[in-house]
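quick one: farnesyl diphosphate bound model?
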Amino acid sequence: MKQLLDALSPGDRDWGIAMQLEANRLPGHIAIIMDGNGRWARRRNFPRLAGHKAGVDPVRTVVETCAQLGVETLTLYAFSVENWKRPRQEVEGLWRLLLFYLCRELPNLIRNGIQLAVIGRLESLPSVVQDELRRAIGKTSQNRGMRLNLAINYGGRTELVDAVNSILNNARLEGKLDSLEITEDAISEHVYTAGIRDPDLLIRTSGEMRISNFLLWQIAYAELYITETLWPDFTRADLLEAILEYQNRERRFGGVERSAAPVVDASSLLMEEEEVEMPLA
Ligand code: FPP
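yep, here:
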């Protein structure tokens, strides 16, 4: 947090928002659905790829800002398993942009102690993309700062299928298939994000009210923040606004709010004729 304040100029909008944040209540894991590149381009009569290209700088901004804030994990949805349906030119353009990002940003990731990881089916990507990702992952693997997960060729349902198959394979190898019982813990230990806390805050840009097959298992209790801002226009101030809004929410995880009315004897709330015998186990 101090690192971020040192990087800001007093009086600027992002400085004003940052000053309102509580340093001890920052989200540990932020996940972002970076949406709206196509619309950003269409509004300017540019090809869709120009929108994706304009989306690279906000990636750099959110990575840098989250690292300065001390966020543990940032997960960015860069390419879904459904995105293969897009025109070949667009898909290839996205791989080129990813290679460009890795080439330009790897020194910064290393310098800032950021650990890069990929979640998704890496093995189906073009081999040059796989190689560069593996190289970048290797070069940052000793870093102990923020973990940056790029969700690439990622799908929430695919991930659950992979997790269940992995549990089944392990049980088969250990000869324990007959007695296998799937538990929530077992699934959490086999999803791509095993060992990482679930997202506390999920941000989606461009106003769509959808989850789009992103982190289906992990976002059970994430706070959702949807902004109309298109991804290429997303700034550091927008990110800080989202975190401020997160801090103004009360997370109850299925419980009751701290200031909830006291619990009373439920039967006293029923009318006499409604009273029922309620056998308690
Ligand atoms: C969704 O916008 C965006 C994507 C499918 C790709 C995201 C890619 C980037 C932000 C570029 C660089 C990323 C990295 C990690 C270097 P859309 O095309 O669906 O927008 P639309 O809904 O307006 O058409």
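The pocket of farnesyl diphosphate is lined by residues 34-39, 52, 55-56, 59, 76, 78, 83, 94, 97-98, 101, 150, 206, 231 (CB under 6 Å).
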